[in-house]
Amino acid sequence: MELYIPRPDLQAEIHLPASKSISNRVLILNALSYSPYDIENLSDSDDTRVLAQVFDSNDTHFDIGAAGTSMRFLTAFLAKTVGEWTITGSERMKQRPIRILVDALNALGGKIEYMEKTGYPPLRIFGSALTGGHIELDGGVSSQYISALMMIAPYMQNGLHIELKGTVISRPYIHMTAGLMEAFGVSTRLTSGSIDIQPQTYRPIPFRVESDWSAASYWYELLSIAGQGTLFLHGLQKNSLQGDCRVAELFGKLGVNTEYTPAGIRLTPNGAPLPDDMQCNLADQPDLAQTLVVTCCLKGIPFLFTGLQSLKIKETDRIAALTAELRKLGYVLHEPMEGALGWDGTRCADEAHPSIATYEDHRMAMSFAPAAITRPIDIQHPEVVSKSYPAFWQDLESISSSSK
């Protein structure tokens, strides 16, 4: 798909998608509470749609495609649900490790087997009551493993105590899970190094999902690169459960002011001088990495982002993908250590007509789209945005049209 935004004086209102992270958790909690209520403003993303279809199905075999969150949450949910189940996914999903979660569930009384390669989907799950108890997990593993265990913990016979070893990444997602569990009537005890959940029962409640701060990041990026205009993003809250609400603070350093209103946020240029370089630990906001990396390159700001250990097991190896695709635009990135990505200002020859590969990764497509302000580019397989933001290209077209 060819993209070019030649006159980027951006003036638009955007109705963002609902939060995928909240939607997926609330679908699990709604099921665990046997809720009679429909969830309001549920995400229309592929990940959420696949998960919702499972709960509407009478099948025992589920193909969740590329939905990593669904794979992890459903593995735990099915492990405590009486029956024999199988769950599989795309070829990429079969390359994404799940052994840590499977080992934890089996240690807590579950019975899960690998149907092909040890440590990876597809899985055969023999669901039954779980005994629970005490486990240790590396805090550097995906927070989705931890959240998956937390949500089913109240129905374990002995509850669940998780000891987290080392540095804990994506901590806001753990707090999001705990906050949503408490909304459904279950108390949790979180410390810096442990999670304790006693046997309890969820209670059903009506629930409305807020808009997605991760999706907002691409509009921050667009305005930062354009340097002019006003964008209003509907449905965002300042006091959000979503860790990616930190995007407002981070882009404050990159030229974007955030004004909070009851209906959403208004983005305008703040006129602040740009930093000489940007150094930031994104362990709690790894989904902002691609947005920030592309923004800093296009604005000529050297950077070093750390805390990115989980990026290599996402939809693609995002470290490698960013390095390869930004070279097409003339930027030479480096990986100084595990979990870090930097740019020291080194340039190379750029391609005359860059075509950006998206690697079946929605965030690659959306984070590179704002580069169309600086030059015509091609985005390969633009349909990947359906994973989290199906209307992204229509929203971008509305901005492009209004700025011509």
Task: Note down, in words, how this protein is organized.
- This protein has 404 residues and is an alpha/beta fold.
- The chain is built from twelve helices and 18 strands.
- It has helices spanning 20-32, 46-55, 68-79, 99-107, 143-152, 171-183, 213-226, 247-252, 289-298, 318-328, 362-368, 392-402, and strands at residues 2-3, 10-15, 61-63, 83-88, 112-114, 123-127, 133-138, 160-165, 189-190, 194-197, 229-234, 256-261, 264-269, 278-281, 303-306, 341-343, 355-356, 377-379.
- The strands form five sheets. It has a four-stranded mixed β-sheet with strand order 2-11-13-12.
- β12 and β13 form a beta hairpin.
- The longest helix has 14 residues, at 213-226.
- It is globular and about 60 Å long.
What is the terminal separation in angstroms? 19 Å
Helix-and-strand structural type: alpha/beta
What's the helix count?
12
> What general outline do the C-alpha atoms trace?
globular
Q: Would you list the SSEs in sequence order as H and E? A: EEHHEHEHEEEHEHEEHEHEEEHEHEEHEH
Main β sheet profile: 4 strands, mixed
Rg estimate, integer Å: 21 Å
Helix content: 25-40%
User: How confident is the prediction overall: mean pLDDT?
Assistant: 94
State the strand order across the main sheet: 2-11-13-12
**Which parts are unreliable, with pLDDT below 50 for 5 consecutive residues or more?**
none
How much strand? 15-25%
Number of strands: 18
